[in-house]
Write a structure and sequence with these properties.
This protein has about 400 residues and is of the alpha/beta class. The strands form 3 sheets. The chain has a 5-stranded parallel beta sheet with strand order 2-1-3-4-5, sandwiched between helices. It has helices at about 20-30, 40-50, 65-75, 90-100, 115-175, 180-210, 225-240, 260-275, 310-330, 380-385; strands at about 10, 30-35, 55, 85, 105, 220-225, 245-250, 255, 280-290, 290-300, 330-335, 340-345. The protein has 2 domains: about 10-110, Response regulator (Rossmann fold); about 140-385, Histidine kinase-like ATPase, C-terminal domain (Heat Shock Protein 90), CATH 3.30.565. About 45% of the residues lie in helices and about 15% in strands.
């Protein structure tokens, strides 16, 4: 069903789909009315493509309407599906049976067009709201699991780096004083391992501070060109071998937490640099995107990108931090399409009213003692690999067209 279409109503029973009041109500809702035959056929249809509302006759052959309700209510994927029963004769006992079985209500013909329209409209709205809430909850659970798994992998990587550094120092102490070239080589290796371990620890601390709510969210007017200029200057000082270019299209100011935006852009830069050769150039572009500001971090055209390797855990953490910072502002992180490989951070003019802090898809507590989670043996490269399309946040529940007549 498309965003602009009405609900899909699935019917079963003695020519339920041909009832005049139901057809009139469906027409006013711009709904798709589909007949499934009997109860067994209806369950098969639901399994293949769940509708938005079910209307089923009390008597539908071997599988009556009450049993259809019970079976739908027993399954997690269909328990929230609104079901209405159609009864030629009804009373309090039959109504109680229907509600006990999981039905939302009972239609007793003749039913007015307006009553049927409003009942079906409200049921579809409830279904859509529940779908959106479930999608959000599933996405939150998936991100939380991936994030905890990534933290475990990162901690193992820190231990490995510290162990490698200790071994390098031990080897350096055992070398003869005259072998200066070998000593310098060991020093370079140890320095590189220590730098990576420090970056891992720093990024981990930032992520955990956001997760636990220890990191305050302080939005103020931020002139993005100044923020990016300072970030490029700092990167050039720390990594003189890397060529960095900044281009700015317009004087863009947003209401944001400057430190968090800075961490987000630095995370995108780190994630990209981990896949580039040391001498490959990195381009930062600031440009308007409608009312939003867009910050693109890309490699120079034609620069080969390698898969996440030595610094894959650090790259995955940096991308995670960037996405968390984007969520905090109601923004997004997307993969660039075109010749230049890279990522883009989109920021609205100011955080929307519904945005919560910490970001809604972030766990608000540390794992308890003994919690191991799932996927502990996953490779860091699997976590760090950026998909071509990052998942979009769930859409809000759709609203039905205004009732007519």
């Amino acid at each position: 069903m498309s965003e602009l279409s009405g609900p899909r109503i699935l019917c079963a029973g003695r020519k339920v789909a041909e009832l005049a009041w139901l057809r009139a109500a469906a027409a006013e809702l711009d709904a798709e009315l589909e007949a499934a035959g009997d109860g067994e056929a209806l369950l098969d249809h639901v399994a293949q493509q769940p509708p938005d509302v079910v209307v089923v006759d009390f008597e539908t052959g071997l599988l009556d309407g009450l049993e259809v309700c019970r079976r739908l209510a027993q399954e997690r994927l269909t328990a929230h599906l609104p079901v209405y029963l159609v009864a030629r004769e009804t009373g309090q006992e039959r109504l109680d049976e229907a509600l006990e079985a999981g039905a939302m209500g009972v239609f007793q013909p003749p039913v007015s067009r307006s009553e049927a329209r409003l009942q079906l409209r409200n049921a579809a709205r409830l279904k859509w709201s529940t779908d959106a809430a479930r999608q959000t909850a599933d996405e939150q659970a998936r991100l939380e699991t991936a994030r905890h798994r990534l933290v475990r992998v990162a901690l193992r990587e820190v231990e490995r780096l510290l162990g490698a550094s200790a071994r390098g120092l031990a080897a350096l102490a055992g070398e003869s004083a005259g072998d200066e070239a070998e000593r310098r080589r060991y020093l370079r290796v140890v320095a590189g391992e220590v730098d990576t371990a420090e970056s891992l620890a720093r990024t981990l601390r930032a992520i955990r501070a956001i997760e636990l709510g220890d990191r305050r969210f302080e939005p103020d007017p931020v002139r993005l060109a100044d923020l990016l200029s300072g970030l490029v200057a700092e990167a050039a000082e720390n990594r003189p071998e890397r060529s960095l270019a900044l281009s700015v299209a317009g004087d863009l100011t947003v209401i944001a937490d400057a430190a968090l935006v800075r961490e987000a852009v630095a995370g995108l830069m780190g994630q990209l640099e981990a896949r580039l050769a040391p001498d490959a150039a990195v381009h930062l572009r600031l440009l308007p995107d409608g009312d939003w500001a867009r910050i693109e971090v890309s490699a120079e055209a034609g620069a080969p990108l390698r898969g996440p390797a030595g610094d894959s855990v650090l790259a995955a953490l940096q991308l995670t931090l960037a996405r968390m910072a984007a969520e905090a502002h109601g923004g997004s992180v997307a993969v660039l399409a075109g010749e230049a490989e890279g990522l883009a951070l989109g920021l609205p003019p100011e955080p929307p009213a519904g945005v919560t802090w910490p970001p809604c898809s972030v766990s608000r507590r540390a794992p308890g003692a003994g919690e191991s989670g799932t996927g502990a043996g996953a490779e860091a490269a699997d976590i760090a690999a950026a998909p071509r399309e990052l998942p979009a946040p769930p859409r809000p529940p759709r609203l039905m067209p205004p009732a007519r007549g």
